[in-house]
Amino acid sequence: MKSNSPIFLYLAIALLLGLIYTIPAGFQVGTGLIAVGFFLFLGLYFRANEHLKGFSFSVVIFAVVALAMFFPLYFQEINGFKLTQLINPLIQMIMFGMGATLSWKDFAAVAQSPKSVAIGIFAQFAIMPLVGFGLANLSGLEPEVAAGIILVGCAPGGTASNVIAFLARANVALSVTLTTISTLLAPFLMPVLMKLLAGQFIEIDLLKMMWDIFKIILLPVGAGLLVHQLLGKNSGWIEKLLPLVSMLGIALIILVITAAGRDSLLAMGPILILIVFLHNVMGYSLGYGLARFIGLSEQDARTISIEVGMQNAGLASGLSNIMGKITTLGLAPAVFGPMQNITGSVLAAFWGRRKKGVEPS
């Protein structure tokens, strides 16, 4: 593929010129095809380039978003079947994959770095929920949309954070531990935080939300962990396959959610995108600042920054779907998912080159 990489770049540039020419016409079929093609070829070029490889998935997510924005009807319903019904099974599949790649030794970082783990979990469930609460109150958006900002802030760390931590030369073992523990705590902490912070925007059934998150997270993670233990050394092929399956699942979730909320996103797009961007970047900044203030190492501070800033937007989307509010409550998670992939990749590229003496764990 590397030998073909210049071709991908030339095709991407040609399509970009076409996109600039056609985009004033609005959401036309031709414009949509050009936009999707541009991001796909750019993603292929990045994939073939060693220095840009870490950005390839983020660019492909842009292609997915463009596909949903230009052709939403194809991804909302098929023969009477609403594609939003796929969201929760896809999240469960991703959570199963997370469990199947874990073993009890992955929790060893708790004993090795208890201070870093404790600070990371505290920051995860304090910074983003409170920042989300502040932004929701300042946004002026309708209550259910504003509640979605808090919802994504209350979510645990996203699985993509582990990859970003590696690219950023952070502490990958700590990243995996924080993602896992925050995910396991989510069924208990998310509903409580939502009740406290989002209760003024939307009605929260505490026990029902706990049970819903338990079904989405703990059951599939537990099943995956059990499979890993049963297969033992024979689980290597699963660990190779599941990251690809997880990336495909994330892309499909973003596709379906964006298509479902396309009209609402167009109506309030700029303000919502700005708020989600601020939420995401403040998570990185405050997470890093807190860790350094307390005296953690550069590697651990980077890890906590990434874990705090990158949320499990898919879980937030799944909950909004269960509540029947995917087109309102689910809008902020729909924007946050692609946004964090982009900002996380940029942050990883910056940190990855800033200090060559800090090697990945």
What does this structure look like?
This protein is mainly alpha-helical and 361 residues long. The protein has a single domain, classed as Na+/H+ antiporter like fold. The chain contains 16 helices and two strands. A two-stranded antiparallel ribbon has the order 1-2. The protein is globular. It starts with a helix and ends in a 7-residue tail after the last helix. 53% of the residues are buried. The mean pLDDT is 83.
Topology record:
Blueprint: H1 5-22, H2 29-48, H3 56-70, E1 77-78, E2 81-82, H4 87-100, H5 108-112, H6 114-124, H7 127-139, H8 143-154, H9 160-167, H10 172-198, H11 206-231, H12 236-260, H13 262-294, H14 298-309, H15 313-322, H16 331-354
Antiparallel strand pairs: 1-2
Essential attributes:
361 residues; Na+/H+ antiporter like fold; two-stranded antiparallel sheet; 16 helices; 2 strands; globular
Question: Quick summary of this structure?
Answer:
This protein is 76% helix and 1% strand. It has 361 residues and is mainly alpha-helical.
